[in-house]
Amino acid sequence: MEKRKSIIKHILSAGLICSLALIGSSTIANAVESAENQLNSILKIYGLESINIEDGQFLRIGEKMKLPTGSEWKLSTEGVVSIEDGQIKAIGTGTVFVTYKKDNKVHAIEIYVPETQERIKKYYSPADEGRDYYKVIVDAGHGGKDSGAPGFGKNESVISLEIAKKVEQKLKEKNIHVKMTREDDTYLKLEERTVKANNYGADAFVSIHLNSATPSARGIETYCHPNKQMYSPLAKEIQTHVISKTGAVNRGIKYDNLAVLRGSNMPSALLETGFISNKEEYNKLIDPSYQDRLATGVADGVEQYLKNTLILHTLPTIDTGVVINTDTLNVRSGYGVGYPKLGELKANEKVEIVAVGDYGWYKIKYKGAYGCVSGKYLRLASQGLADLNGHWSKDAVLDFVSKGYIDGYPDYTFRPENTITRAEFVKVVNKVFNYTDKAQINFTDVNSSQWYYEELCKAIQAGYIKGYEDNTFRPENPISREEASLMISRIKNNLKGDGTLGFADESQVSYWAKDAVDSLIDNGIVGLNDRNLFRPLDNITRAESVMALSRAENK
Ligand SMILES: [Zn+2]
Catalytic residue among 272, 424, 455, 482, which? Predict the structure, then answer.
């Protein structure tokens, strides 16, 4: 669009600005010709090749705008606007084209005056609507008979569609849902564009145009509506990203009463991607690889704006999985190989599943958003821990895993016969008994950067650990059966034994563990093996730990 530089000083009478010949004097406000018919008539008079159709404006009844710089202003229909004192004033509803001459060219500017006085509606964020994705409407400027500004072969409406389609694709690759105001070279009324946007409930509206002025004018600018400067961050993000991707001259952010910006309820911006009237820029603007860079800039800018301003609804994790049967697993934007690839996962990588999709696919958390993967290459946690099948501890372990007290390994094994370190055991105990308060600790072999530091603080506060006499805790040593028994008995200190041990290896029990082992055995929390052995010095296994803590929890 051209910048209107000065106010027209002439005082123009209605008679001077007579309407186009084909519009009869009987035309009244309620019977305004359709915008397309008016455009047809203008094109019949001036011919498509010589006319520059500018970006549409939006006025409410009673509002005025400056008359564009030029001469021989004419209205394509009566009853919508009047021209007086160098201003265009909206006097009725409908659409009108103001044609005028400037620099030996004919210009047409479409002005839309809506019937309703509807204002900006409350805007609902994706989080309010429970959406885990953004919705963007992409508007390719002009279209069909409204060819926009003429170029050196292709007109604005054709090139804006080429770029807009690339923007659509780039946004879809970012998991953003996109609707186009037009998919092909058809004519659309100004209000149809914003009605589509408002009905779709898009989070952002982006209109793609090309600029036209003198042959030497160059560069990119992005428009924001002057009454909606709170949405200027959208224009700024787009402008910044597009300039960085293209290296074009930065003409900055501008403000104008453009119809599509005013009529849309959501944050909106109109991008002038370059000057179609400049041969050098024209050649770039029709080049697919340059269009690609432009589109990437637009998509990056829109995404950045949305991420900065709108919180998506987060889907809770319903299962976890690990990548199997492949070295790399493609993550796509939808359920199926037909959707664009967002990236890839490596073998054994863990994923969080948020939804079960079609065709055996799953939606997973991916890079701060979501992606989709084929279930053929996942092993799901809900499918169980493979090495528990047939193991005596299976039910207790699955119960603990489901409560989040203890984890399996990333490969979905539990390794029930493995030992457990003193720190790991404390972590499980804290979860089982919900210990969260912390005390200060000063074990000489523990420092605050270690993962178990906080766990030991909780255990000291709960009073079930004391550490060794040399003031160490030896957190990474495996824990023995008698040490584990002592910790549990301190927690279950209301349980008493009968004062005698009475098993084959009772002499091996350390003096400090005798009462603990006695009370736990007598209360059925720990047991003896089939040879009547307690094995107090053996390391307790992961399965035995779960079983003892499970019984203690329920006692
Ligand atoms: Zn345009």
Answer: 272
